[in-house]
Design a protein that fits this description.
two-stranded antiparallel ribbon, alpha/beta, globular, four-stranded parallel sheet, single chain, 6 strands, DNA repair, Rcmb_RecR_Znf, DNA recombination, 213 residues, 10 helices, 45% helix
Amino acid sequence: MNSLPNSLKKISLFLERLPGIGEKTANRLAFYFLRLPDSDLKEFAESISTLKEKTKFCKECYNLTEDTLCPICMDQNRDKSLITVVETVLDLLSFETGNIYNGIYHVLHGKIDPMNHIGPDDIKISELISKLKAQNSKIKEIILATNPDMEGEATAMYIKEKIKDSTFAKASADKQNSNVKITRLAYGMPIGGNLEYADYMTLKKAIDGRNKF
């Protein structure tokens, strides 16, 4: 590393700070950038320099977008009565792979994690409750799709209680909107999994969520 020119060394050290990038990979990427045609390198540099300036939150679901609304919220073919709550935009992208879901989303941008000093006010929970209050007559189901770890479960439980305690739930009851459901993603054995290697909680969730066959 010490034998590299300073300009190349700076690029390599920065790349090394990225998730999953070690020193050797950072060096290879730095040399790759050096070999790029000037036009490609300038285009890449401009994209990086304007990334934060151009990228903002969708005003409806807090997905990332360059417009007021993201393409999902603007899509008139989406089922606006179905909202899936996810922790991150990457989780949203997983749902969008393979056209398995046709509802809309709400991105929390995190989860409740006291060990890292992240509380309910640090993520987009109040924005979710406000949205539900404003659209209570249109919503039929809310899917809590936070991750199945301790923090994800705690976040899902907190949101569930906040929804039940909110005027959204009361307004729905007043309008006899009995179709509004709060659901959680099913857990259990993965496709191609082996029972021999499954842990206790995975097997318990698989038994609890078993379906008629």
